[in-house]
Amino acid sequence: MARRPEPVRKSVKDTLDDLLNGHKEAAFSGPESALKYLRRVFEGQVNLPNAVKAVAYDLMADAQAQVGAWEECTASVAMVLKHLTDLEAEFPHGYRARLEALTCFERGIQAHSELGQFQEALGLAERAVALELGAHYQAKADNLDWAR
After folding, report:
1. pLDDT in tens, 26-58
2. How far is CA 140 from CA 16, 24, 29, 57, in A?
3. What's the number of CA atoms in the CB half-sphere (13 Å) around residue 102?
4. Helix, strand, coil % (nearest 5) of the chain?
5. In the prediction, which pLDDT does 118 show?
6. How far apart are alpha carbons 69 and 135 in whole angstroms?
7. How does pLDDT run across 60-95, given as a tens digit for each residue?
8. How would you classify residue 84: left for phi > 0, otherwise alpha for psi between -120 and 50, otherwise beta?
């Protein structure tokens, strides 16, 4: 009886690299192509690691913001935030760099502002400040302080 080959099991890092490479290629044709690629990733990957989901949702939020899909963007941002701890757990040594590369805070603030959800935008700005992601988030929080 022949042995069945073992399924290929990629590491989280390899899965993330594949996602980033595929996204880069798709995004070359514009944000609509990037969204199409990311939707296919989520449909086709039943066991996508949560750390990779964080990055994929971040890329999705960025593309959704580019096409003005504000409600979808806020949903994607919420999913990124949900998986931040998974990102830190999988990439403890590279977490800070990955966190700083995320666009979800910027895009989430933009999307919530476009939807008139200024308290939510302020909350994201304050969370970014708490994570020490840059002084510009403090400026955004100061600018949105009236929404308290």
Report:
1. 999 999 999 999 999 999 877 899 999 999 999
2. 30, 29, 31, 23
3. 32
4. 75, 0, 25
5. 97
6. 27
7. 999 999 999 999 999 999 999 999 999 999 999 999
8. alpha
